[in-house]
């Protein structure tokens, strides 16, 4: 059986969405479905991008929509483990300021546990 490319892991402070593939049109539908399912139960999401070498504009659109939905529910979408390439794409597309960025999921979860997310 092939492992899922996008997985949901629930924690008390947030849902973690782990991605293990390039974020492109082939993965976007699965990412959207998992983010929607996660957002139904958690206003705070961490998207683990440590296994993501590249990202395209289709996937960025999904992440931006998730960010907007989270903000409507006083939540936040954090990005963890993004590669230099992914960070460059976020910056180039002027969406890097939408997401708190962390080196890894543990750092993002610690931040969510200890900070006032409404002010993020």
Physical arrangement of strands within the biggest beta sheet: 1-2-3-4-5
Beta-strand level of the residues, as a percent range? 15-25%
Question: What integer is the average pLDDT?
Answer: 92
Q: Which structural class do you get from the secondary structure elements? A: alpha/beta
CATH topology: Transcription Regulator spoIIAA
> What is the CATH H-level superfamily?
STAS domain
What would you note in describing this structure?
With 120 residues, this protein is an alpha/beta fold. It has one domain: 2-Layer Sandwich (Transcription Regulator spoIIAA). The protein is built from four helices and five strands; from the N terminus they run ββαβαβαβα. The chain has helices at residues 25-41, 57-72, 84-92, 105-114, and strands at residues 6-10, 15-19, 44-48, 76-80, 101-102. Strands 1-2-3-4-5 form a five-stranded mixed β-sheet. Helix 3 links the parallel strand 4 and strand 5 (101-102). Helix 1 packs parallel to helix 2. The longest helix has 17 residues, at 25-41. It is globular and about 30 Å long. The relative contact order is 0.17.
Descriptive tags:
4 helices, 18% strand, five-stranded mixed β-sheet, globular, Transcription Regulator spoIIAA
Layout of SSEs?
Elements: E1 6-10, E2 15-19, H1 25-41, E3 44-48, H2 57-72, E4 76-80, H3 84-92, E5 101-102, H4 105-114
Parallel strand pairs: 2-3, 3-4, 4-5
Antiparallel strand pairs: 1-2
At a glance:
With 120 residues, the protein is of the alpha/beta class. It has one domain: 2-Layer Sandwich (Transcription Regulator spoIIAA).
